[in-house]
Fold this sequence. Notes:
Oligomer: heterodimer
Radius of gyration of chain B: 29 Å
Number of domains of chain A: 3
Largest interface: A-B, 110 and 115 residues
Structural class of chain A: mainly alpha
CATH architecture of the largest domain in chain B: Orthogonal Bundle
CATH superfamily of the largest domain in chain A: MetI-like
Order of helices and strands of chain A: HHHEHHEHHHHHHHHHEEHH
Largest sheet of chain B: none
Radius of gyration of chain A: 26 Å
CATH class of the largest domain in chain A: Mainly Alpha
Amino acid sequence: MPALSTAHSVVAPSSTSRWIAGTIVITYAVITMIPLVWIVLTSFKTPPDSIAYPPKVVFEPTLEGYCNLFTTRTRQPPEYIASLPPAEDVCDEIARSRNMVIAGPSNVVPRFVNSIVIAFGSTFLAVLLGTLAAYGFSRFKVPLKDDLLFFILSTRMMPPVAVAIPIYLMYRELGLTDSRLGMILLYTAVNVSLAVWLLKGFIDEIPREYEDAAMVDGYTRLQAFRLTVLPQAATGIAATAIFCLIFAWNEYAFAVLLTSGEAQTMPPFIPFIIGEGGQDWPAVSAATTLFLVPIFVFTILLRKHLLRGITFGAVRK
Amino acid sequence: MTEASTTSRPGLVEQVIRRHPDPVSVRFRGLSDRTIAWLFISPTIVLLLAINLFPLLWTVYLSFTNYRANRPNAELRGMGTTYYEQILSDPDVWESMQATAHFVIATIAIETVLGFAIAYLIDRKFRGHAFWTTVILIPMMLPPAVVGNFWKFLYQPQNGLFNAIVAPVLGVSPGSFQMLGDVQLAPWSIIIVDVWMWTPYVVLICLAGLRSIPDYLYEAAEVDRASPLRQFWSVTLPMALPFIMLAVLFRGIENFKMFDLVNLLTSGGPGSTTEVASITLKRAAFESWRTGYASALAVILFVTVFGLANIYVKALNRVKQR
């Protein structure tokens, strides 16, 4: 019997081995999803349910966590609450059932806005600078090219806490402490290294012949760049932008060390969502759930480019 | 060209020139390539010089002074290499370096073995493997700080989900151990979260490695009647090794800098059992405000990570060339 026809070839795994592999992988995937499912479940629990023992899997869902996340409340005597006009919305009702009155909005919306402004601002700048630099490195003879590229990459190896010390001092001199502009510049600097490396890979893959043809047709180099390279690199630019967005969205070390109020983003804010007597876990979970939704969307959009992004373009598949 | 322009049919010549403008006219219309190259590259370089290199140099300068960020007007004195000597002979710093090393080694070992195993299994291409791969990859995209904060909730001793699930398996009561408060368990509580979060990273890179192995190698091994185990050791593993090493390199650098998870889960405690280098640095720089001292520590850390990464990259290249 020829050896090539044996069924256990690794080239085509047998159905039993496939079945076993599938079972193990799916088990692993399900286990790793437990914490995420628990975040979403907890966000719909009441505070007592969230810390019940044993942990409650079945419970009556409530919006209390989300209400608490967006409001601040004060405790009032029952007589005062009884004297109020009927509750206006569901959050009002929940607060009153706990002998509280909604005092006003919480800080979560401004923090969320900070996260959005800083993430999008720094992504826009990083991708803009990164595209230009990547094109420059990809198409032209630049003196010390390899050293410059290595320098760009090496900035990414610095521990953020180490960088934060002089940045803190520098920003204090420049009046950029706890400002959105300061954070945007900082995240741009961190992201531009990723953007240059990723985009150089994408642009390297676009044949030079397109630009050459355009220039033969009388277009200038800049026009050729705009009309042939940019459209071809659009997918790569989009993927790079999403990576930059996710980094800026997720960043914690710089945010916690350099911002305290005005420019604070969500990651340093979420751990400090507290209720009466410690962390308000349903509200924390509600914030976490809302904060994670964009990441889920982005991850699914990016799934074909993930590998490239996390290896700085070193592995392209 | 010059000959063509003297012919009696200028209309045609003009058309030809318009279609094929000669190189000289291209160079004079618009900017030269060299100008464009610098115009395109310099903004990035300037930004990085201002926000990375300049601060780094400033850190080096500060590390030789007694500067304290909370007393900017105090008299500045040069300290020479005092802080470097202090740090390198301080047992607490060595302990934090050891804690960092333990953390890095433990996480990388577990993540590499687990990640490679999962990637190997995914590569069996069972039905639905593409979907489940995406599911597995989700944790690594999440914000470590936000998710790490939630793990604190999962780790609560009496009513946390982690204890509730793990305790029955071990046959103890859920309230009998504290993941974050126990000196023995606290390092593991961080390692578990890191493994949960970053094993997908290794899976993804290893998967790329496994998929890059050409089928004909396996076919050749079949012809040689190599057993599946033999095929694994002589084909799969060596071919995937550069990828595994790349994953180890990236994880190593990232975990050497580890700050988010530790700061939120234990902030170095209990005592200083989980005080990794970044936490020591944060405490020196932003809690006791010994800026000069912290700068010296930052320089030492940076040199260490840079040196290790360089050695590793050299090794990686040697493996790739083989």
